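BUG-263 | component: ligand-complex export | severity: low

The export step for NDP jobs runs without errors, but we want the raw record kept on the ticket for reference. Input record follows.
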Amino acid sequence: MKHLFAIFGNPVAHSRSPLMHNSVFKNLNYPACYTRIHLEDGSKLRETFFALGLSGANITIPHKEEAFRACDEVRGFAKNIGVVNTIVNENGHLIGYNTDADGFMEAIKEFGHVETVLIIGAGGTAKALANRFVQDDIKVTVLNRSKEKLNYFKEISTCHDWEDFKLSKYDLVVNTTSAGLKDEELPAPKEIIEAILNNTSFVADAIYGKVTPFLKLACANNLTSKDGADMLLGQGILANVLFTHANLAIEDIKFHMLRSFEL
Ligand code: NDP
């Protein structure tokens, strides 16, 4: 039987996940294919999943917290953070996981030891990364446009909105906002971003497939930076292992996903 997988999001047209997973399925002769679903209303995730007869799914903006609620059971790290980016259908039960945070940790290995991180944004990705950093005793600061979303982070990090931002030194600054994804916006006012970039060693953006204004400014400041492609690869490999029940070798999955980046 051929299995069907999908990514749910809004927007979702930019997603590389179908290419990545289909490249693995096709080249390793795994009987499956992977499509994308534009989903306006996150509360329809569960019924859409079953209506399409999916074996599994990835979830992207803005539905990762809704995906947590759609699951019958949530396993591992996702349970602590309430954010799900991967769902596997186990005999009609939806099992949720989060592979973003471990995918990101893999992506920043090349920066070496990191002790202090500033996360810009306070959505699902920020939650996953903040909790994962804290797990490794990394000191976290979160900066977000709106005050409300910061409440979640108060126990695990120093929090600022744009009005009360206080500058410190950071080893790494990560943009987890969607500013720059479909527009040319910076994730915070320019004077704040410039001050931050003068006080960090490394810069990462969760957005991939384009050089965001944030990354452009980091490059102009001669900072070592990376976009979200390696995070995408890291989370995709871990999701594929879950989808295929660990029947494919990780090195083979990685090889074919990386090749799909050239398409
Ligand atoms: P959410 O919708 O959960 O959160 C978005 C955050 O961005 C909010 O804190 C919001 O702030 C902020 N924001 C949105 N627009 C702007 C703006 N114009 N200026 C400043 N802040 C803004 O999104 P996710 O956390 O799920 O995803 C965020 C980004 O990370 C997306 O671009 C996504 O594509 C990318 N991503 C990439 C991955 C990869 O594999 N490379 C994996 C996961 C995510 P406010 O509270 O004020 O609304």
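Assignee comment: Attached the raw record above. Residues 60-62, 64, 100, 121-126, 144-146, 149, 176-179, 181, 185, 187, 206-208, 228, 231-232, 235 surround NDP (CB under 6 Å).
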